[in-house]
Predict the structure.
Amino acid sequence: MDRQGGAPASPPHPGPIEREQKPPALWLPRLYLRLLGAQVRSQLVYRTAFALDALAAALVTGAEFAAFALVLPRFDSLGGWTLGEVALLYGLAELAFVLMDLVFGGFDAPNLSAHVRTGSFSTFLLRPVPLPVQIFGSDFALRRLTRVVLAAGIVAYGVSRVSVTWDAGDVLLLAGSVLGMIAFFGGLFVVGGTLTFWTVESVEAMNVLTYGGRTLISYPLNIYPAWLRRTFTYLIPAAFLSYFPVLHVLGRPLPDGLPSWAALLSPVVGPLILAAAFAFWRVGVRRYHGTGS
Amino acid sequence: MNAALLRRAGGSHLRPYLSAARLSFRRQFAYPAATFWGLTTNLFFGALRVAVLLALFGTRPQVAGYTPADAVTYTGLTQAFLSAFSLFGWYELMRTVHRGEVATELLRPHSFLGFWLAQDAGRAAAQFGLRGVTILALYGVFFGLKLPPGVEGWTLTLISAVLAWVCGFAFRFLVNCAAFWSPDAVGIGRFAWALMGLACGFLMPLAFFPGWFRTLLAWTPFPSMMNSTVEVWLGHAKGGEALGVLGVQAVWAAALLGLAQLVLARGLRRLEVAGG
């Protein structure tokens, strides 16, 4: 595409300029899908290795949950929560996190810092394609699909084992919970990625919030010390994402006398964090110097 | 040969291994920031694991021979061994095979396996000194930590920890040998680490698992890679029983090292190094 066509001095020519200013509808989504397609094809070159990798991805999650499920019968319950109830929390958190990883993987600090260090990030800036689309399309790990399936299975197990008469509202609430979590953890990935503009080294501190946060909300928050639960409710609003919605579905009151509508806030809290994260991202991109490589 | 001569011959024979271990030890101190954040992450995850285990116990004084204090000590120990035993993956050998750097190492006039063992010994010792001891001290301050019973307990624990590291190293070495056969052995690695995490007792103490599962694991080397050391530390296995545990660990260590040597010889025979 000729970018100089729109020089301000020349009067507008309806033909070519119009075409440049208004790219065909769905241009960006189509481009994004093409980027994903290219990665999927490359990942399928070594079939056996891919199959093992995909199996291993599921086994990491599977082993953690299996260890918990194997041990629980000796103890009856986890802070008053049955295996089915914990499965619901655990499965929702895992499902949202792995979906987020598929979408936002390019922003994860190790990936982005590699681009910054090697200078390929500067190449992204030269291309006539919006920067976020390129980052979104830069790390799509197909092997994680097995984890999506496993997580969905754990949620299904949880749904079948809890004594809830499901209605459309409950289903919507949990769907909103997953969307909120995807936006929330996506926002954390964007913040972690942005920090690499300043530090170059990958930002290990963010792992406490991302991977640590995922583990934290995989279990009922009432089992943690009060200060930890309050930190992840009022300072970092992770409790709103899945703990409150699941409490609501199970018909239990929220802690600290919070009103029951607070359980509906996941689809609000998540996108707010994501919007703030992208504001920070724009500041980071403006300040970006490159490493000279 | 007199004793002095023997010592000198032995000394010069061991020198490359000792310097490999020493260099690898020193390398671990190169990134203090990474060590600090690694510690923070480790402690945070440790705190979450303590909360889950204590919530499982509830008001019970004891389950499967573990008191709540035992369970807290168990998480402290496993979190402390995490980096020393390199449980979350280790792909260094694999990388040298894929990059062809392995060819340079094969030119050296000493045992390939022994050299890697020495390097990993240095790495593990530094990681335990840097992170492990710090984590145990912080656990002692924040959560409380049970210590091995007496001098005998400390001695048995120390031997058991060294044997656990040898078993774990030999297993990691074996997994990395897959690189001789597969152009992309990383998946095999990820698979193996996940299996190891569950079966060595990192995710939950093996004593809590159902009987059939523990019987199954008893036939594998995995419990020897961590769970055995925890049981000796906690004094769950003491005296003759502890010696039995150490014996099993020693047999697995020897068997795994032997297998690693065998698989390595096979792998080297089919190694092709592309240009450089």
Remarks:
- Chain B has a mean pLDDT of 90.
- The CA atoms of residues 57 and 68 of chain B lie 7 Å apart.
